C-alpha cells in the first residue's frame, strides 16, 4: 500500500523536524535475526533485538553485553511515540517483532490485547517490591499477569519562567483557579504573552491532567471493561481549559511545534504543565532560556491537596513470539532494577526511573535547572501524589478521537466537554465493534 | 516443420514472459489478493481481550465494505478532496499549459533557465515541500503574514494553502510533458499558419492546443489519480493546524485505521473502495474525453 511507505517517510520526517526529544532517527530492521536462532539448541550466544528510543541506550546495552557474553543485545533505535507503538503492533502481526520493546504505559494494553507481549509473572516475581503499587498496576492492568517491567515514569509538574513571573509580579499558582487568574492578569500586563497554551495534539498531557483530577477512563471489573472517558473529573478539566482558551486568557498553539518553540524562546509562554522529563525538551527546544525556568507542583483542584498525574513513562516488554523469553526477561529485569543499570539510565538516558530506590538516589539537578538544586526532591514529592489509571486496550482510538475532537472544538469554538464526550463514544464504539465485554 | 520445433514455438513466448509474470504476481496480484482477503476479515475479541486466545480473526464477508461505503466521514473526505482536486487540476494544468506555450514561443529568452526553474520544485520531495510551505504559513514565522493579514492555516484557507503546495510541486512536471510534445510538432505547421496570416495567439489556440490534446488528457488523468491519493500535504501540515482532521482525505483515513487505531481490516476494505473509485474516475474521464476529442466510440 502506498500509504504505508509514505507514512514511514513522514513519521521520520516529522520527528526529525518537530523534534520531541531530539531522537528521530532511521532504524535498521531487527528481529528476524533472533527469530532464526533455534530455541531447542542455541549455538553460541543468544542474540536479542531491543527496540527503544531512550537516548544512549546503546551505551547502556554495551555494558550488559560486556558482562553477559552469552546474551548479546542489539539496540534498534526507534522514532518513539505513537508511531513506534503502531510499528511494533504491525511487526508483531507480520511475525517478526523484536525480542524486547520499549512500551509506553498507555500502549501496553494494546500490545497485550494483540497478544504481542509475553507474561513475565514468574520471571519478575522477585522484583515486584522494587516498584510502587501505582506503577506496578500499569504493567499488570490489575490482573494476575505481568506484561512488562516498568522503566521510567512521568509525574506531572508545573514548569514556569521564574524571571518573568517576578517581572510581572505573578505568584506561582497553587490551584487551577489561581492559574486562571494569573493567566488573565498576564494578558493585561503583556498582551503579547500567554501564561500557557492548550495543545489539541497531545492527548498524553490531557490524560495526565485528567488523572490529577481523579479521572478513571478504564477499569477492569471481573470479566468486563468499564469505560468512562467522559467522567466528571475529565469534563471539569476540559471545561476549565476550554473556558480559558475561549476568553483568550491562554493560547491554543500545540506543544512541540515551531511556533511553540519560538514562543518559549521569546519568553511569550510563561508556563508549561509538563512531566519530569521536561528539562530535556526545554533544553533542546528553548536553549536561550536556560536557568530561567523553575519547577513547582501542579496547581490543585482544591487548595491543600497534593495530586498529580502521569504524562508518558514506559516499560520494557518481552515479545510473545521471542524464542528466548528467559534471556529477554533477564535483561528487562537487569536494566530496570540493577543498581549499575539504573545509574546508567539516569546518567546516559536522562530518564526518571520507575524503581523506587533509584528515585531516592537522584542527586544533582538537570543542567538546564541548575538554578533549582532541589529538582529531584520536588519530583519525588510530586511523584508520591501522582495517580494514574488502567489504560484500555484501544488507547490509539481514544487518543486519535482526542486530536480530532479538540482540533474541531478549537476551530469551531465549541465546548471542550463535547469533545470529551466524542472521545468516550469513539472509544466505546470501537470496543463494542471488536467484541470486548463492557460493563454498562 | 519437425515435431520438435512445433512444440518449441509456443513455449518461447512464455519463457520470455516469465520474469514479467513472476514480478506481476509477486508484487501486484498477491498483495492485491491479500488486501481483498484482509478486507473480508475482522478481529473478534471475547471477554477482556487480554492474554492468549482472547482474540481471533473471523470471516465477515462484505461487512467491512458496507461499513466503508456507509461511513459519512469517508464521503466527507471525498468531498473535501473533490474541492481540493478541482482547484489543483485547473490551476496546475492551466499554468503548465501556459508555461509550455510561452517557452515554446520563439520570443522567450532564457528559456532553458526558466524551464529548469519551473521544473525544479518537482524534484523536491512532497514531505519536504509541505514542511517548507508549512513553515511559511505559520503565523509567527511566516514572512507572508507580514504582507498579507490572512490566517493561511484557517478553516477557510487551508484548502487553498494545500492546493498551493501541490501546484508548486506539480506544475513543472506537467509543463515538461506538454513542452516536450510541443517540441515534437513539425515547425512547418506554424509556418503554414503564419503564411495564412495567423497571429502567435491564434497559432497557440488553433494549432498547438488541438495537437496537444492527447498530452493534456494524459496529464489530466495522472493529476486526477494523484489528487485522489492526496496524503502527503495534509498529513505533513496537520501538526501545524487544527483544521485538518485525521480523516481529511480518504487515504488519510486508511492510514489512520491501519496504523493509529489498529484496524487493518477496515483499512484494507477502504483502500479497495478508493482504488475502485479512482479507476472509475480516471477511466470515466478518459472515455468522456475520447468520445469528445476524437469521436471514438
UniProtKB/TrEMBL annotation, chain A:
Signal peptide positions (record) = 1-21
Name of the featured protein? Sugar ABC transporter substrate-binding protein
Organism the protein comes from:
Nonomuraea glycinis
Q: Read off the PANTHER family from this record.
A: ARABINOSE-BINDING PROTEIN-RELATED (PTHR43649), POLYGALACTURONAN_RHAMNOGALACTURONAN-BINDING PROTEIN YTCQ (PTHR43649:SF33)
List the InterPro entries: Bact_solute-bd_prot1 (IPR050490), SBP (IPR006059)
User: Which keywords has UniProt assigned to this entry?
Assistant: Cell membrane, Lipoprotein, Membrane, Palmitate, Signal
Which one Pfam family would you cite for this protein?
SBP_bac_1
TrEMBL record, chain B:
Principal localization reads: membrane
Q: Name one Pfam family in it.
A: BPD_transp_1
Gene3D superfamilies named among the record's database cross-references? MetI-like
Protein topology in the membrane: Multi-pass membrane protein
What InterPro entries does this protein map onto?
Answer: MetI-like (IPR000515), MetI-like_sf (IPR035906), UgpAE/MalFG_permease (IPR050809)
Q: Does the keyword Hydrolase apply?
A: no
Segments passing through the bilayer: 12-34, 81-104, 116-138, 158-179, 211-231, 264-286
* Source organism, top-level taxon: Bacteria
Protein name, per record: ABC transporter permease
Q: Which organism is it from?
A: Nonomuraea glycinis
Amino acid at each position: 500500500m502506498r500509504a504505508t511507505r509514505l507514512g514511514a517517510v513522514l513519521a521520520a520526517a516529522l520527528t526529525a523536524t518537530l523534534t520531541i526529544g531530539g531522537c528521530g532517527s532511521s532504524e535498521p530492521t531487527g528481529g528476524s535475526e533472533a527469530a532464526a536462532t533455534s530455541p531447542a539448541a542455541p549455538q553460541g550466544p543468544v542474540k536479542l533485538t531491543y527496540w527503544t528510543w531512550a537516548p544512549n541506550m546503546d551505551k547502556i546495552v554495551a555494558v550488559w553485553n560486556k558482562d553477559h557474553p552469552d546474551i548479546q543485545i542489539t539496540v534498534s533505535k526507534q522514532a518513539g511515540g505513537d508511531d513506534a507503538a503502531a510499528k511494533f503492533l504491525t511487526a508483531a502481526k507480520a511475525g517478526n517483532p523484536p525480542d524486547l520493546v520499549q512500551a509506553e504505559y498507555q500502549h501496553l494494553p494494546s500490545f497485550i490485547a494483540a497478544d504481542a507481549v509475553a507474561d513475565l509473572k514468574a520471571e519478575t516475581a522477585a522484583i515486584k517490591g522494587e516498584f510502587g503499587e501505582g506503577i506496578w498496576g500499569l504493567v499488570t492492568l490489575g490482573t494476575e499477569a505481568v506484561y512488562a517491567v516498568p522503566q521510567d515514569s512521568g509525574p506531572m509538574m508545573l514548569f514556569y519562567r521564574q524571571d518573568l513571573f517576578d517581572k510581572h509580579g505573578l505568584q506561582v499558582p497553587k490551584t487551577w483557579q489561581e492559574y486562571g487568574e494569573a493567566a488573565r492578569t498576564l494578558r493585561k500586563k503583556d498582551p503579547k504573552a500567554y501564561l500557557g497554551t492548550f495543545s489539541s495534539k497531545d492527548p498524553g498531557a490531557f490524560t495526565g491532567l485528567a488523572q490529577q483530577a481523579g479521572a478513571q477512563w478504564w477499569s477492569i471489573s471481573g470479566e468486563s471493561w468499564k469505560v468512562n472517558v467522559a467522567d466528571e473529573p475529565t469534563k471539569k478539566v476540559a471545561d476549565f481549559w476550554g473556558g480559558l482558551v475561549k476568553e483568550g486568557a491562554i493560547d491554543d498553539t500545540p506543544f512541540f511545534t515551531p511556533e511553540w518553540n519560538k514562543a518559549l524562546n521569546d519568553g511569550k509562554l510563561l508556563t508549561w504543565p509538563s512531566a519530569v522529563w521536561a528539562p530535556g525538551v526545554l533544553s533542546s527546544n528553548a536553549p536561550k532560556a536556560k536557568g530561567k525556568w523553575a519547577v513547582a507542583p501542579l496547581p490543585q483542584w482544591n487548595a491543600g491537596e497534593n495530586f498529580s498525574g502521569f504524562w508518558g513513562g514506559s516499560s520494557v516488554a518481552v515479545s510473545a513470539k521471542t524464542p528466548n523469553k528467559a534471556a529477554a526477561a533477564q535483561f528487562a529485569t537487569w536494566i530496570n532494577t540493577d543498581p549499575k543499570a539504573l545509574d546508567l539510565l539516569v546518567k546516559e538516558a536522562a530518564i526518571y526511573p520507575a524503581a523506587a530506590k533509584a528515585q531516592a538516589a537522584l542527586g544533582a539537578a538537570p543542567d538546564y535547572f541548575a538554578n533549582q538544586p532541589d529538582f529531584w526532591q520536588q519530583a519525588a514529592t510530586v511523584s508520591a501524589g501522582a495517580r494514574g489509571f488502567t489504560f484500555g486496550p484501544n488507547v490509539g482510538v481514544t487518543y486519535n478521537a482526542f486530536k480530532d475532537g479538540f482540533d474541531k472544538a478549537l476551530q469551531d469554538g465549541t465546548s471542550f466537554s463535547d469533545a470529551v464526550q466524542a472521545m468516550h463514544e469513539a472509544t466505546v464504539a470501537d470496543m463494542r465493534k471488536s467484541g470486548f465485554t463492557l460493563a454498562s | 516443420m519437425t515435431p520438435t520445433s512445433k512444440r518449441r514455438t509456443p513455449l518461447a513466448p512464455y519463457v520470455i514472459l516469465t520474469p514479467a509474470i513472476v514480478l506481476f504476481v509477486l508484487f501486484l496480484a498477491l498483495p492485491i489478493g491479500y488486501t481483498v482477503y484482509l478486507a473480508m476479515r475482522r478481529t473478534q475479541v471475547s471477554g477482556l481481550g487480554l492474554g492468549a486466545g482472547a482474540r481471533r480473526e473471523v470471516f465477515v464477508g462484505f461487512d467491512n465494505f458496507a461499513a466503508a461505503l456507509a461511513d459519512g466521514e469517508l464521503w466527507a473526505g471525498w468531498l473535501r478532496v473533490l474541492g481540493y482536486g478541482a482547484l489543483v487540476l485547473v490551476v496546475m494544468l492551466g499554468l503548465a499549459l501556459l508555461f509550455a506555450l510561452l517557452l515554446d514561443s520563439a520570443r522567450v529568452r532564457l528559456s532553458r533557465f526558466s524551464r529548469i526553474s519551473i521544473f525544479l520544485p518537482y524534484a523536491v520531495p512532497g514531505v519536504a515541500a509541505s514542511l517548507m510551505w508549512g513553515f511559511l504559513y505559520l503565523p509567527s514565522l511566516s514572512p507572508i503574514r507580514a504582507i498579507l493579514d490572512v490566517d493561511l492555516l484557517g478553516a477557510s484557507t487551508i484548502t487553498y494553502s494545500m492546493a498551493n503546495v501541490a501546484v508548486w510541486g506539480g506544475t513543472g512536471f506537467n509543463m515538461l510533458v506538454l513542452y516536450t510534445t510541443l517540441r515534437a510538432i513539425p515547425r512547418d505547421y506554424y509556418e503554414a499558419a503564419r503564411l495564412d496570416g495567423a497571429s502567435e495567439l491564434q497559432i497557440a489556440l488553433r494549432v498547438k492546443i488541438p495537437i496537444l490534446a492527447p498530452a493534456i488528457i494524459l496529464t489530466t488523468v495522472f493529476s486526477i489519480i494523484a489528487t485522489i491519493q492526496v496524503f502527503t500535504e495534509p498529513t505533513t501540515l496537520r501538526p501545524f493546524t487544527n483544521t485538518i482532521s485525521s480523516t481529511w482525505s480518504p487515504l488519510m483515513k486508511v492510514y489512520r485505521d491501519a496504523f493509529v487505531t489498529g484496524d487493518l481490516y477496515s483499512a484494507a476494505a477502504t483502500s479497495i473502495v478508493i482504488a475502485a473509485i479512482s479507476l472509475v474516475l480516471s477511466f470515466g474521464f478518459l472515455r468522456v474525453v475520447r468520445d469528445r476529442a476524437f469521436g471514438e466510440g
